[in-house]
Write a structure and sequence with these properties.
single chain, mainly alpha, 130 residues, 6 helices
């Protein structure tokens, strides 16, 4: 398979992966909300759909990584650009973008875990008054 055909295949796979992520995420959020008990769709509970959603996201991440490697030449050319006054702005913008991306990716791991005891779920009317 030539590079053009491979890029088309990767693009199709990434589209299908994104559609699957949207589908399973929407299903988890709206059709099987928290505390939905033993409710299931196609024999799978909320947590099982969550597992599927997670594994689809891992596959999607791998596909996007391959996509970026296939376009590495373009990315390098776009970042380097022609030598001019704008080169400094590109470097700063790239650094800021990379920093924000890293902070976004790391934030779930460094954020404190909140306990969601019964008070939060069983008495929402009391939480509004505090």
């Amino acid at each position: 398979m030539n590079k053009s055909g491979l890029i088309k295949l990767i693009d199709l796979m990434s589209f299908i992966g994104l559609a699957a992520l949207i589908s399973t995420g929407t299903l988890i959020k709206f059709s099987l909300p928290p505390k939905s008990g033993n409710a299931s769709i196609w024999g799978l509970t909320r947590h099982e759909w969550g597992d599927i959603h997670f594994y689809i996201s891992i596959v999607f991440l791998c596909i996007i990584t391959i996509h970026l490697f296939l376009h590495l030449k373009f990315i390098k050319a776009a970042l380097s650009g022609k030598t001019s006054r704008e080169t400094g702005y590109r470097i700063v913008a790239g650094f800021i973008g990379l920093t924000v991306l890293i902070l976004f990716l790391v934030s779930p791991f460094i954020s404190p875990v909140e306990s969601g005891g019964e008070e939060k779920f069983n008495r929402p009317h009391e939480r509004r008054n505090k």
